[in-house]
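Appendix B. Chain record.
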Amino acid sequence: MKIEIIRNAEIIMSNPDSKHNYFGWPSLVRMSDGRLIAGASGFRLDHICPFGKGVIAYSYDDGKNFTRPVTVIDTVLDDRDVGLCRFGENGLIVTSFNNTRKMQRRNAEDQPEDIKAYINAYLDTVTDREEEEALGTTFRISRDGGVTFGKIYKSPVSSPHGPVELSDGEILWVGYVFNTEDRPNDFLEHIEAYKLDPENGSTEYVGTIPDIYENGKRITPSEPYVAELSDGTLVCHIRSEENFSTYQSVSFDKGKSWSVPEKLLSDFGGAPCHILKHSSGVLCSLYGYREAPFEIRAMFSTDNGKSWDTNNTLYVNGISDDLGYPCSAELPDGSIYTVFYAKENEASPCNIYGINWRISE
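Structure tokens predicted for this chain:
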């Protein structure tokens, strides 16, 4: 498979007139009315800071233009990775997660003194009770296509791009178990699947993906995404922390049991992934490659995930390894629109980019 670029990557979310100008970790869905909705963590100071908000923006012309981002999730903590799940005719779930005040203070130590003071002054205003109420994986539900949203719910698992709606209407969330202890980035112990009820925001445990071992050593899994094939098979791609690679696990019983994850990419070959099931039958899994020259890459499968054509370059940044988290949607003409985050130049903050491309033989 080859990649044909239709429209080059361009910035779709930024805030250049403010110090709160960092955006990262996006997702994308195409709604039943044809709109694209992009989500991200925005209005931040940096990769780690206490000011992140979960935001969304809309496109009415297949990604040529997007509205200014509007805030959907804004707790007193740092609202990070924004996932999106379309369900039913007009439903939308927006997900995020956050970190402790202690973690924010620790990371502020590396900032210039004025920024450090700014961060700590804000954190001084957050009470223990407010932190306890906000901390965790959060999500909100819209029933009018992302115009209005209900209250904030919490989930036991987190994933960058959120849950997925299966062909039978069930919503499945495969994620890493949220850890409220003070660990950098809350990297967690194992991957679990839950069924989510959009009527009341409740979750029900379904199953657990087996642990990953390499050379007798356990590999820490995180940031999964799952896609459903036409026969009901679930294919899950998982980020590994120690070697920044991608592993695959498969379920044939709607997430109750899973195969032992198998490694798809070499060490530091890239992660985390989002899998798009294209109308042609091709599975497209996109991921960030954080070794020079810093890229967004794609792997393709024409046999339902049994084998993959890996390391196809979609975008080259050449500036910074602070990039990735691509997420894609198919457009009416069969082309693909993908969002991701990256820096425009060495001195700039990260922005959300969009690129339009197609699969070619």
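Further analysis of this model is presented in Appendix C.
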